Every structure is written in structure tokens, then in C-alpha cells.
């Protein structure tokens, strides 16, 4: 409920009893090593929740309030006592649907006109969810990562900081090209709504990918923006992929990921990159969804000389399986290797004939540095 990617959505829980763990205290003080929250952001992001049976009594050592009191404090409506199985069946048949919560006598049998349904996808929800001003986490980290914030989950920032990165979080439409020299890697976050609202970011990124050869990694919305910058198209799926048990097949190896393996992943998306054959020059498919064959990841080819990856799923989990969590380690390892390579002084061209007459052919022209 606090994942900013759910902004604007009414969530229908298929688990019948919801709220029995209660809600923990969500601290909101950023210190320079922590992202400042326990949950995925500082507030409830979804528009409403629908649960079959809400637990008023909660029991968990870290809980401080019930689900309904938390919703009330956040001004987010919830409805209970409805048949979520019937709603799920309807959504399974007709796909994600515009919805509306109404209670009381006036609501019964009322059939609102189409204009009475708010369609969140018409708005740029990313502009609402993104940070308004840049901020830093763990400034003393050894590798400097810029994060384009489309509505980042806290656990993504945590995954970077816990692996030693100094993280600068930038607004979604910030032109990174102006400051790219200061960073060792670029990360593009998850975010709510239609990725086509982020075309400005994709255009900035297109230039970055042409002119900057350091590692770039994107998750979910970030992956879609990378795809759009590479010339691919993002479309709205009839059935989004959600939940914590989505199997994806790796089609290429990179870092900890091995081609041919299936990884179980956490997902939350309504849009996807269109599967193209062939892929744009310099790009290849990275992962494919085992259930619906949708694109789950793309990467730059070895021949392109670039290090760019995007995944549609959530390696940071929270919640869900940790099968792909090492992708953060892989990304930072690439950034560190790249940084090391840049910092090692290159061999100066020498006048071979003067240094060692007769041995000129043995003096290496370039020093190769192992990654
Ligand atoms: N979690 C995300 O980043 C989702 C991306 C995009 N909003 C989608 O629904 O496809």
C-alpha cells in the first residue's frame, strides 16, 4: 500500500483476512545512512483498499495501529464485507478496470456515468510521486550512484545504500546529462502510471546512453524508460503482473544471472515493453515471463560496448522472493570496476626508440586493466 507504483489504484486483496498483523510505526527521519522509512514510502499511496474481512484486532510485536485506523489517518477509504472473490473473477475476465467505492442508500444500484470514474492513467502520476528536490544518502559511499526517482520504493534505495553506494536521488525529469561526470552509475526507479508520460526522461536518457559509457540499471518503470530510450514501445497490458510468485526465464547471462534459469520474482506492473523481433540494434532480451511471455528484461549487447540493463520485475523484493537481489551487487560491481579502470593512470605514449632502442616492439602501447 505504500509502494508509490500503486498510486491512484484501488487494491482488491484476494487474501480474505487482512489486517491481522496491524501496521508498524513508519519513522520518517532520513539520516544519511537510512532512507527514513520502514515501509516503502512515507504514506499510503493507493487510492483505496477492498478487503473481504478486515481484522480489527491486530497482533505483531512491531504493530502500533490497526489497518482501518491507519487508513483513516491517511484519508484513504477502505471497504470490507464485500465478496472479493466475485470482484476478482470480474477482473480476471475483463482485465484491470476503472472502479469506484460508494456506500449508503444512494450508492445501491446507482450506475455512474463514465465521467464519474476517475482514470488515473490520464495523469502524470510520476510527477506526483517523484522527489521535488535532489537529496543524498550515504554521501561517503565509495561509488557514486544517481537515481532518477519515478516514485522509488524505499527498499531500492536501501539495497543500494546497504551495498556501500553514495546515492543522489534526482527528480524524474532532471537532465542527468548536465551532471553525469560526477557519477559512477545511473539507476532508474520504479514508478506509477503510464510510462509514456515519461518521454522527457526517455529522451534525456537516449542522449546519456549515446554519450556516457558507465553502467545504467533500471527497475520496472525505469526498465520501461530504458526501453523507450532504446526505441522500443511500451503498451498497456490487459492483465498486469502482480504478486510475489511470477516466474521469469533468463535468456542471457550477466553477473549473478545465468541464462536458462527460472527466477521467481515480485512484480507490480500494468505496462510492458513490446516484444520485438529483431530487437533494436545493440539490445537483446534479458528475461521473459514464463506465464504470459511478456518482456521481463532487456540488456545492451556485449558488442555495443555499453553496460545497460532493465528488469520489469522487482529484484529488491519487499515483499517477495530474493532470487534476483544480487542484481544490485552486480550493478555496483560494474560501477566500481568502471571507476577503477578510469582512475588507473593510463600508460603515456612513449617514444619507444628513445627509451629502449632496439626493443621498441616490446613496449606495450596500452595497459589493459582487468575488470
Ligand atoms: N512498479 C512499477 O514501476 C510499475 C511501472 C508502470 N507504472 C506499470 O504499471 O507498468
UniProtKB/TrEMBL annotation:
It catalyses: L-glutamine + H2O = L-glutamate + NH4(+); hydrogencarbonate + L-glutamine + 2 ATP + H2O = carbamoyl phosphate + L-glutamate + 2 ADP + phosphate + 2 H(+). Its EC number is 6.3.5.5. SUPFAM superfamilies: Carbamoyl phosphate synthetase, small subunit N-terminal domain, Class I glutamine amidotransferase-like. GO terms for molecular function: ATP binding; carbamoyl-phosphate synthase (glutamine-hydrolyzing) activity. GO terms for biological process: 'de novo' pyrimidine nucleobase biosynthetic process; glutamine metabolic process. InterPro entries: Anth_synth/Amidotransfase, CarbamoylP_synth_ssu, CarbamoylP_synth_ssu_N, CarbP_synth_ssu_N_sf, Class_I_gatase-like, CPSase_GATase1, GATASE. SMART domains: CPSase_sm_chain. Keywords: ATP-binding, Glutamine amidotransferase, Ligase, Nucleotide-binding. Pfam families: CPSase_sm_chain (PF00988), GATase (PF00117). The keyword Manganese does not apply. Signal peptide: none annotated. Residues 1-102 form the Carbamoyl-phosphate synthase small subunit N-terminal domain. The keyword Kinase does not apply. Pathway: Amino-acid biosynthesis; L-arginine biosynthesis; carbamoyl phosphate from bicarbonate: step 1/1. It is an enzyme of class 6 (ligase). Belongs to the CarA family. PANTHER family: CARBAMOYL-PHOSPHATE SYNTHASE SMALL CHAIN, MULTIFUNCTIONAL TRYPTOPHAN BIOSYNTHESIS PROTEIN-RELATED. Heterodimer composed of 2 chains; the small (or glutamine) chain promotes the hydrolysis of glutamine to ammonia, which is used by the large (or ammonia) chain to synthesize carbamoyl phosphate. This is Carbamoyl phosphate synthase arginine-specific small chain. It comes from Trametes pubescens.
Amino acid at each position: 500500500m505504500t509502494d508509490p507504483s500503486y498510486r491512484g489504484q484501488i487494491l482488491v486483496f484476494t487474501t480474505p483476512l487482512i489486517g491481522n498483523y496491524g501496521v508498524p510505526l513508519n519513522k520518517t527521519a532520513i539520516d544519511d545512512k537510512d532512507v527514513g522509512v520502514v515501509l516503502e514510502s512515507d504514506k499510503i499511496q493507493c487510492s483505496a483498499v477492498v478487503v473481504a474481512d478486515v481484522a480489527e484486532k491486530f497482533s505483531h510485536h512491531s504493530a502500533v495501529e490497526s489497518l482501518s485506523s491507519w487508513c483513516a489517518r491517511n484519508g484513504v477509504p477502505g471497504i470490507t464485507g464485500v465478496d472479493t472473490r466475485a470482484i476478482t473473477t470480474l477482473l480476471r475476465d475483463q482485465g484491470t478496470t476503472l472502479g469506484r467505492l460508494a456506500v449508503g442508500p444512494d450508492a445501491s444500484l446507482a450506475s455512474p456515468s463514465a465521467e464519474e470514474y476517475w482514470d488515473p492513467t490520464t495523469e502524470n502520476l510520476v510527477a506526483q510521486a517523484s522527489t521535488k528536490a535532489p537529496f543524498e544518502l550515504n554521501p561517503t559511499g565509495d561509488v557514486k550512484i544517481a537515481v532518477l526517482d519515478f516514485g522509488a520504493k524505499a527498499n531500492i534505495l536501501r539495497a543500494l545504500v546497504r551495498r556501500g553506494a553514495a546515492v543522489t536521488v534526482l527528480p524524474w525529469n532532471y537532465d542527468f546529462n548536465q551532471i553525469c561526470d560526477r557519477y559512477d552509475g545511473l539507476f532508474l526507479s520504479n514508478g506509477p502510471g503510464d510510462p509514456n508520460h515519461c518521454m522527457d526522461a526517455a529522451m534525456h536518457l537516449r542522449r546519456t546512453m549515446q554519450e556516457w559509457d558507465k553502467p545504467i540499471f533500471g527497475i520496472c518503470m525505469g526498465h520501461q524508460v530504458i526501453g523507450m530510450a532504446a526505441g522500443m514501445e511500451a503498451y498497456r497490458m490487459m492483465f498486469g503482473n502482480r504478486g510475489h510468485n511470477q516466474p521469469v526465464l533468463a535468456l542471457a547471462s550477466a553477473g549473478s544471472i545465468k541464462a536458462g534459469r527460472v527466477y521467481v520474482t515480485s512484480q507490480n506492473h500494468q505496462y510492458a515493453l513490446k516484444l520485438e523481433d529483431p530487437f533494436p540494434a545493440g539490445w537483446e532480451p534479458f528475461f521473459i515471463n514464463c506465464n504470459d511471455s511478456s518482456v521481463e528484461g532487456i540488456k545492451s549487447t556485449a558488442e555495443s560496448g555499453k553496460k545497460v540493463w532493465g528488469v520489469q520485475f522487482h529484484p529488491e523484493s519487499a515483499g517477495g522472493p530474493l532470487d534476483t537481489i544480487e542484481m544490485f551487487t552486480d550493478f555496483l560491481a560494474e560501477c566500481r570496476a568502471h571507476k577503477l579502470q578510469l582512475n588507473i593512470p593510463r600508460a603515456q605514449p612513449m617514444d619507444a626508440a628513445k627509451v629502449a632502442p632496439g626493443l621498441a616492439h616490446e613496449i606495450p602501447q596500452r595497459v589493459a586493466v582487468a575488470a
